[in-house]
Amino acid sequence: MGRPMTGAIQDGVTRPMTAVRAAGFTKAAVRGSAFDPLGQSRGPAPPLEAKNEDSPEEKIRQLEKKVNELVEESCIANSCGDLKLALEKAKDAGRKERILVRQREQVTTPENINLDLTYSVLFNLASQYSANEMYAEALNTYQVIVKNKMFSNAGRLKVNMGNIYLKQRNYSKAIKFYRMALDQIPSVHKEMRIKIMQNIGVTFIKTGQYSDAINSFEHIMSLAPNLKAGFNLILSYFAVGDRDKMKKAFQKLIAVPLEIDEDDKYISPSDDPHTNLVIEAIKNDHLRQMERERKAMAEKYIMTAAKLIAPVIETSFAVGYDWCVEVVKASQYVELANDLEINKAITYLRQKDFNQAVETLKMFEKKDSRVKSAAATNLSFLYYLENEFAQASSYADLAVNSDRYNPSALTNKGNTVFANGDYEKAAEFYKEALRNDSSCTEALYNIGLTYKRLNRLDEALDCFLKLHAILRNSAQVLYQIANVYELMEDPNQAIEWLMQLISVVPTDSRALSKLGELYDSEGDKSQAFQYYYESYRYFPSNIEVIEWLGAYYIDTQFCEKAIQYFERASLIQPTQVKWQLMVASCFRRSGNYQKALDTYKDIHRKFPENVECLRFLVRLCTDIGLKEVQEYATKLKRLEKMKEIREQRVRSGRDGSGGSRSRREGSAGSDSGQNCSASSKGERLSVKLRALPGTNEPYESSSNKEIDASYVDPLGPQIERPKTAAKKRIDEDDFADEELGDDLLPE
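Now predict its structure.
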């Protein structure tokens, strides 16, 4: 019979339908309908309902989105350092948020207002006010948040208000708000409570209430010890002078756990390439950098605390350092013990006890290479300062051999070679120091000095300009650049750099006199006078400056103004007769003959064998008509006769010791050459000396003659004015001896 048809009737019973509708088979298919399981014959779906952008709900949603974006932009601008833009964005967010609240109140009930958005807008605005140091506006905004009972946990913002009062140095209000915040924070938030208590302790230190600060820090160290609290506790005990408590606090500080991994974690235990790659990846990741920073901070606190308490916890600072060293050796900071010993040596240096410093540093000769190199570097520096270059070189070699990559050791070695005059070799050591540490400014400065000694001025200038880019306001570097330009015969650039130097050290008399010298060489006498006068104001004992000023007034026919400068020079050098002769000459040239006569008489009493003084006494007495003229003339003749006899003896001695007439003539020629040289010393300030007045000529006749500015008297001593040296502390030779040395503490 076979299987009956679907839906057929057999024996009066209809066969049940099978479940085939899900596959698209229906009864209509039997009647010839098309196969359409997805219902595509019904046509496309109706379009989506258009969004009504004018509806109040949509406007509120868009405005809320805009407020959130403004808050985010404000925070991003603050993190980028653009505080002004951050504040503008925060204000804009606040304005739009108030508009949003009004619109919500019109559409929905007040219960539907987004309090979290209002809180974040106000909090961000207060933070931006505080960042821009607008403390009054920040406090007002924080008060709005704190007083609103609808904001949960708003009380903790009183910590921020306390911080603002602390910045304003209103310490009593700062403590008040810290305590209010502490009362509103539950005990489960242990870390925040400890941080607030730490703020309270710091504020007590600023107000000088050390006992209250000690209570706060002791409580913190008993609950959750940390480095900052331990260090502040030591400071508080130091302020009250409690030695025993200082020791206990130092031991507590040493015992604070660092909670960082050991360095062994970053050493590969096997040759597994996968493990090595992982270790290489985490060797310098952010977590590792944070661990290094925490360890460096701990070492800094411990070293600073030890240096602070060591001189006061025992009878002497040496015993105190020994106690600190023993405590450190028994802790997890064993490597700091050697650094403390080196600090002990440096303390000896500050107390001018060089022998003890040397002995302390010599103890490190048998220690590990790093410590040995540091100690040897300092020993080399000490011996270099004492001009014991052999010992300095020996310890510099020891430092270099212990640590070839120590830039301080290489710099000191270069200094010892520089002192011996081997500039090429010194330059090699400085270059190696720079290769090891490009920020070693001492090596860069010294290599510039070395090139200057080798007359490689372009390379020297390049070094000093690089150094100027690093040390913008270094007076030494500015002077060296100016000096190199002067050696390169570029006075305009030299003057420009010296002007920068004066802006850094406006009271430096040597730099001012150098500027005066450069302007003088350029022919600008007025500018030269200005800077020489300023130099004289700050340091009125520089003979070269005094001489130039006196010569300037003589050249400008103001002899009476030159008198004060030459009188000061005679006070500085009372055994030099030339200054007193200059004073007398100024009196004479200004027409005050009586004062000039009295001055010459006083000079004659002090220097009875001075021929020039007697000659002018004779001339003055003759012109005035005094009776003493005969007495002075007799003395003058006697002195001239004695001088002639001495010269004859010298000539006869030369003639007797000479072999031939040619040698005698050569000797006579040299004597005449010397006389010519001596007579030319008076030619200065571009003014030439004309013929001297005769003995029988009237005295006034000399007033019409052209007189050299630095020339005192036609028959007086000749003055030789050397170039004004730069100030000693910025002189290149001084730097070769002093500034070449490296810092006491090597990197």
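The two ends are 107 Å apart (CA to CA).
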